[in-house]
């Protein structure tokens, strides 16, 4: 297929002729297009004369004078010259005119090199040249489109003008160096915020114009290199001044906070400075990354240790969360979060050890640690973006410091939970549950979980037996469930057994009341008995009293009832855990006294007389001296003085005598005097501690035998290593050595005859 095109005037006449040749050997049909060029008739034209008209127009533009010809006429003249093949000559003449103009302008601008307003002059020259070049290009637009863009290597007239301006003005060494130095001086003034008020906008326009000139002339790299070098010098100097001031100050923490604010401000300013679209932006955006990197390196990375050493502890202890967030973000920019994490860990260990190791702070240790944990949570959330590494750092720190003091933290955590569960009526249930969850965080990291269990079981038993009407069973079970989730069912099996005993006891007492044969023997006394499985509950010291007949009959009646259906079992009455509600008729009003069984026995003896001596009470009650004195002290020297002691002071001695207080009065009808039962005595604490040690000995023995049975033969160092892995509480090599000797004596293991450090399992 052949297509012919012929252009005539403003119309295109097309002749299309189709030729198809079928060739069985070749399936390709080619399309050939021919352009028929119509020859332009030769006319007489004087190029020099016509060019002179165009030159006059260019001179007028250069001199900012009115044009003698219209723009339309000049454009048509250029078009005609191009059509008659004068494009090359025309282009060369334009180039020569631009060169002559720029040479003269270079002479003019060179005279202003030493003037203060050199940049203003250069800016004016550049902007005026660009405007003049645009007008010249509009006259020679036909030449630009038909010849310059296709035939000339330099490209369009606009590109030609910029290249000539660069060659004859901007890139001349003294002009370029002067312009860059002046720019850098202005930028430093801007960084120091020393622009004269009201002149900021003009200065920004000037900076933007000159730097845009460097960009348009492909000279920006020269400026950028100088700009980055000057930026390095500036920020190195600024940071050194700040750091020297911080090093010599006694208030370095506050100065660090101010320093971080300055760094953040500098970074934000550089980002805006490298945005030509901003009001105060004049540097190209390609420089943004490099200049911000300089700020980060000079002001953060170079002084990271000083910043953290002088400021971190101040910021975190003063709860300056915004400053900490700023610190975190800045350090994250230089990829040094690990340094911050290490300081964070050291702070946690230092602060935690302060609370744990000082025994004088034991009463407030747990609450202090919970408050400390809450503060750290606030830091993580508000300042460290809940970074997983920092969250794990908190856990790591707590695990280290909370075990620096063996056993005591576990005991105090148990006591703290006990205290809150006893106050459940005065604290909202949601608050108690939150406290339980927070305490579980501490519990997870203690090595002495067996210590916690021993004390928790002791305290739980008293809550169930002495405060059964005031505790919240759901909260108690919730705590057991949390412990079970954390440590498994074996850890809480005894605690769960205690709740089961309480439930069974409730059913037993209901059955007892339904049996007149036994319930009639207790008269009008309301009896409640808890039958406890010895394997679940803590052991208690046995207390033997000379019981009044009415109390003794209550015990005997229930014993007969229980043993009738549970033959073969042995009931052992725990008198130290018993309590009574006595109705007391005082002259000034009747009261109900909640007292321990020992207190009740003492008070019941005052039904027969108003005065009893210490020795008489001792003979009647047959209590041991320590318990008797403690009970008498609580009745005569406590908050409610039901008895009056004949001597002053809070101590009870054998020579004291006691009188029933007929003048006793109180606004309350029910008075609780048995609080001494709830308090843990030194003996109880000692007993609990000894039980833990004894249980640990059993665990060590069992672990050694288990390892020896599996290995048959093992060396002492490897045995120690295995034990440290298996045992969940802190233990010393000396403790292990004692248990090894005990097992050797009992023929569980034996030493190698030739090497004392090797043990063999005895089959």
TrEMBL record:
Biological source species: Piromyces finnis
Instruction: Cite the Pfam families for this sequence.
Output: Cullin (PF00888), Cullin_AB (PF26557), Cullin_Nedd8 (PF10557)
Q: In which pathway does it act?
A: Protein modification; protein ubiquitination
Q: Which SUPFAM superfamilies match?
A: Cullin homology domain (SSF75632), Cullin repeat-like (SSF74788), Winged helix' DNA-binding domain (SSF46785)
Record's keyword annotation contains Nucleotidyltransferase: no
Protein name listed in UniProt: Cullin-4-like protein
The record's similarity note reads: Belongs to the cullin family.
Any GO molecular function: ubiquitin protein ligase binding
Q: Which UniProt keywords apply?
A: Isopeptide bond, Ubl conjugation, Ubl conjugation pathway
Cullin family profile domain: residues covered: 408-636
Q: Which GO terms describe its biological process?
A: ubiquitin-dependent protein catabolic process
Query: Domain of life of the organism in this record?
Result: Eukaryota
């Amino acid at each position: 297929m052949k297509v012919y095109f012929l252009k005539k005037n403003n119309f295109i006449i097309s002749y299309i002729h189709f030729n198809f040749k079928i060739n069985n050997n070749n399936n390709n049909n080619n399309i050939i297009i021919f352009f028929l060029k119509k020859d332009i008739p030769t006319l007489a034209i004087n190029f020099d004369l016509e060019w002179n008209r165009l030159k006059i127009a260019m001179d007028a533009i250069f001199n900012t004078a009115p044009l003698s010809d219209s723009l339309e006429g000049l454009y048509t003249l250029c078009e005609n010259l191009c059509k008659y093949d004068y494009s090359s000559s025309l282009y060369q003449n334009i180039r020569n005119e631009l060169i002559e103009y720029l040479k003269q302008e270079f002479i003019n601008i060179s005279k202003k090199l030493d003037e203060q307003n050199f940049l203003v002059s250069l800016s004016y020259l550049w902007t005026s040249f660009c405007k003049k070049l645009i007008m010249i290009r509009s006259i020679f637009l036909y030449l630009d489109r038909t010849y310059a863009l296709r035939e000339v290597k330099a490209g369009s007239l606009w590109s030609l003008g910029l290249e000539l301006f660069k060659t004859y003005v901007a890139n001349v060494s003294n002009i370029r160096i002067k312009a860059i130095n002046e720019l850098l001086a202005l930028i430093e003034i801007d960084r120091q915020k020393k622009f004269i008020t009201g002149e900021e906008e003009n200065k920004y326009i000037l900076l933007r114009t000159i730097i845009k000139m460097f960009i348009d002339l492909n000279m920006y790299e020269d400026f950028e290199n100088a700009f980055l070098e000057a930026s390095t010098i500036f920020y190195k100097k600024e940071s050194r001044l700040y750091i020297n001031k911080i090093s010599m100050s006694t208030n370095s923490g506050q100065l660090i906070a101010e320093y971080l604010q300055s760094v953040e401000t500098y970074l934000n300013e550089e980002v805006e400075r490298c945005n030509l679209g901003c009001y105060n932006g004049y540097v190209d955006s390609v420089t943004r990354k490099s200049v911000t990197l300089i700020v980060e390196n000079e002001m953060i990375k170079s002084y990271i240790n000083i910043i953290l050493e002088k400021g971190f502890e101040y910021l975190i202890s003063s709860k300056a969360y915004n400053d900490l967030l700023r610190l975190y973000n800045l350090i994250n920019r230089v990829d040094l979060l690990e340094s911050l994490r290490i300081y964070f860990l050291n702070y946690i260990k230092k602060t935690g050890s302060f609370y744990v190791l000082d025994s004088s702070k034991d009463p407030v240790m747990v609450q202090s640690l919970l408050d400390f944990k809450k503060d750290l949570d606030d830091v993580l959330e508000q300042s460290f973006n809940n970074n997983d590494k920092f969250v794990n750092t908190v856990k790591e720190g707590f695990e280290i410091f909370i075990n620096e003091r063996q056993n005591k933290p576990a005991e105090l955590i148990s006591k703290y939970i006990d205290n809150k569960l006893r106050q459940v009526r005065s604290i909202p249930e949601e608050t108690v549950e939150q406290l339980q969850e927070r305490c579980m965080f501490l519990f997870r990291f203690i090595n002495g979980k067996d210590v916690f269990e021993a004390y928790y079981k002791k305290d739980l038993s008293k809550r169930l037996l002495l405060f059964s009407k005031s505790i919240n069973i759901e909260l108690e079970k919730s705590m057991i469930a949390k412990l079970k989730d954390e440590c498994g069912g074996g850890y809480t099996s005894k605690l769960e057994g205690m709740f089961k005993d309480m439930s069974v006891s409730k059913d037993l007492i209901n059955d007892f009341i339904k049996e007149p044969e036994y319930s009639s023997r207790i008269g009008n006394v309301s009896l409640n008995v808890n039958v406890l499985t010895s394997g679940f509950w803590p052991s208690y010291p046995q207390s033997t009293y000379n019981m009044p007949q009415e109390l003794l009959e209550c015990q005997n009646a229930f014993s007969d009832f229980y043993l009738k259906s549970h033959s073969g079992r042995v009931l052992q009455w725990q008198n130290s855990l018993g309590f009574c509600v006595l109705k007391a008729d005082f002259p000034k009003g009747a009261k109900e006294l909640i007292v321990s069984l020992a207190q009740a026995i003492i008070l019941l003896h005052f039904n027969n007389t108003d005065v009893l001596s210490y020795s008489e009470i001792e003979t009647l009650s047959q209590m041991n001296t320590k318990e008797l004195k403690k009970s008498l002290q609580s009745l005569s020297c406590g908050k409610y003085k039901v008895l009056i002691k004949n001597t002053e002071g809070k101590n009870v001695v054998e020579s004291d005598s006691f009188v029933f207080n007929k003048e006793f009065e109180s606004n309350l009808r029910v008075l609780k005097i048995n609080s001494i039962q709830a308090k843990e005595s030194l003996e109880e604490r000692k007993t609990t501690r000894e039980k833990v040690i004894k249980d640990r000995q059993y665990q060590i023995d069992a672990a050694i035998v288990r390892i020896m049975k599996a290995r048959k033969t093992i060396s002492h160092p490897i045995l120690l290593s295995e034990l440290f892995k298996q045992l969940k509480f802190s233990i010393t090599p000396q403790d292990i050595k004692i248990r090894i000797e005990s097992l050797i004596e009992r023929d569980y293991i034996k030493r190698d005859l030739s090497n004392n450090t090797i043990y063999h399992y005895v089959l």
